[in-house]
Design goal:
2 copies of one chain form a homodimer.
Chain A (H helix, E strand, L loop, with lengths): L2 E4 L6 E4 L13 H14 L16 E4 L10 E7 L14 E3 L2 E5 L3 E6 L13 H19 L6 E8 L11 E7 L4 H17 L3 H12 L3 E4 L3 E4 L10 E5 L11 H22 L4 E6 L8 H4 L4 E6 L6 H6 L2 E3 L3 H10 L2 H5 L4
Antiparallel strand pairs in A: 1-2, 1-6, 3-4, 4-7, 5-6, 7-9, 8-9, 8-13, 10-11, 11-12, 12-14, 13-14
Helix pairs in contact in A: 2-5
């Protein structure tokens, strides 16, 4: 049974996820196992059309008319994660025994299979397919927002083994938690302080400054701005913000979806071209759900794209301070100059 | 010139380290470069005796009588990092322009070369050599504590490429910063709250409980306790605390050094045996320096050992919540049962 535990010293939460329980012996000779897993993937990928029975039954899909659930004919398919870190039916309540505080590991863990083609890559999806992925993200976000006991919905995409992807077939994930992550809580507090002091939105102000300065801008369109943040933790880190102030990703409108799909494809395409398909995490930041207050409405949802070209090591874990060898101004310049047209030639 | 930058939203600090500047093109075809670097290491390791001219001049060494600096004859050798993330002579002052705050990247970055033998491994050092490494750590800690403009001294050891080690030869590092890391500041605040509420030390209480319960204890001796923390972020994460309340690592006494060396060797030996030499980060947590207050004296220094068997991915970066598939109680049981004697047979 998965469990949230809070550290008595740092106050940070972890999920002890026994569903994906690794016995200590599973970590021994991990290289052999990886080789083996890779072979299995090529033979029978559980995310490829025709292998639908290898996943739990689908909870949502965009599919061709007159095709049945859990059969081919889908464009995007959402299924519960087979090795879920959190479980929807988890029972129990908060416990506090002396220094030790825990919560049942109740929540949602889903996989969004983004496209039928095993070898496809997000920047090269047909534009309409990229929009479909975002539609699926929005649908799942809104669906889980209605569950009163969930407080946060984390959508993310890991690409490449170094970035945590265990399967090659293009997919993203959704994890919904019964608590507000400390990262988001901290940003909300900061935005409130700023609002009180300046009487304007920290996020909206930041977008305006970045656009004015221009040196860290990677791309923009009518609805979105992509820039390398001033204090980038990772080389080529890029944030994608809607111009319009919206606290929840679930508020995204149809006419924004196309522009968001286009700018994600654009930025990922530049990254793929310039840095030869680097591993990355693409991470949603959004307001907590079921906590409608002035504070949470002050939040401004966005995506953080974190290329994994450097190694997070002892100094970062000790201090929480990241060392980044590439100034964001240089990264932005390099990405804006990357000619992604070259790469798209001859690609599907 | 390296620079600290504070993120206007998260308030987190990063170091933009232009001394180790990576041009974007350096990230392309990184696999080829790694292969090449590895070959170079075997041919001429800059940390091996006889190659002393390949490093900056030594700033400290434990060496045999009548041997000259920067020549063979040392047991432990400390040199400035050739690719320093922070520089001692960095000039300038804090800047705040609109939303953007920065500090000059002034600080210290040193490498502690732990042993002359290239192939040695910490758990298998002669016990006296392990003590020498700690003596060097303490000497450097105390040395830099005397610089009034430094606020924190981070000692850490990265082992294995996945954990950030770029050279194989056994070494550790020291980075001293002009600001107090947010991780440590948060722990100090929490310890103060606890002190006000319970009138006792959070850390001392935690040690006592862990020893009583026993289920997470990995090893202990007269001066130190090693246990897997209740909310472990990583499988087999282990913390090593002195029983005695000391806020600074620099306060460690001669008679503690031997017990600390012994327990680090013991724990790392168990890890090496049980998990076939996994990559890890070993990270000091200690009170800020040059900030003697009631709050900082309430801190209790310790080491955190973080094996890198899992991948930190999108969910962790989005939420700050780690998913750990191995309960610490199971990890502790496995480590206590690891028979490290077997492995030491036939090793030097």
């Amino acid at each position: 049974m998965p469990e949230f535990r809070q550290d008595p010293i740092t106050q940070n939460w972890v999920i002890i996820s026994t569903e994906r329980a690794k016995r200590p012996s599973d970590f021994v000779s991990s290289k052999d196992r990886e080789q083996k897993e890779k072979a299995t993937i090529k033979d029978t990928c559980p995310f490829c059309p025709g292998n639908e029975e290898q996943t739990p039954p689908e909870v949502f899909a965009l599919r061709s008319p007159n095709t049945r659930a859990d059969t081919p004919g889908w464009q995007v398919r959402v299924v519960p994660n087979k090795f879920a870190a959190l479980l929807p039916k988890e029972k129990g309540r908060e416990q506090k025994v002396g220094l030790y505080r825990s919560l049942p590991g109740k929540g949602v863990h889903e996989v969004i299979i983004e496209i039928p083609e095993h070898e496809a890559s997000f920047p090269n999806y047909p534009p309409r397919q990229a929009v479909r992925v975002l539609q699926a993200w929005r649908q799942r976000y809104l669906q889980h927002s209605q569950q009163g006991d969930l407080k946060y919905i984390q959508i993310f995409k890991n690409q490449g083994q170094i970035a945590g992807a265990s399967l090659e077939h293009p997919h993203s994930q959704l994890l919904a938690t019964p608590l507000v992550p400390p990262t988001v809580a901290q940003e909300i507090r900061r935005a409130q302080e700023y609002l009180k002091e300046k009487e304007s939105c920290l996020f909206c102000d930041l977008l305006e400054r970045e656009m004015q300065k221009g040196v860290r801008v990677v791309a923009f369109n009518k609805k979105f701005l992509a820039f390398c943040p001033y204090a980038s933790r990772f080389p080529f880190e890029t944030w994608i913000f809607p111009w319009q102030h919206q606290s929840h990703f679930g508020e995204i409108e149809d006419e924004q979806l196309e522009d968001l799909a286009a700018i994600i494809q654009d930025v990922l395409g530049r990254l793929q071209m310039a840095l030869q398909d680097p591993p990355f995490n693409l991470v949603l930041r959004s307001a907590p759900v079921n906590e409608e207050t002035e504070e949470t409405r002050g939040y401004h949802w966005h995506f953080e794209l974190l290329p994994r070209l450097t190694t997070v090591a002892g100094f970062e874990y000790g201090t929480g301070i990241y060392i980044n060898p590439t100034p964001p101004e240089l990264a932005a310049q390099f990405l804006t100059q990357a000619n992604k047209e070259d790469e798209n030639d001859g690609e599907t």
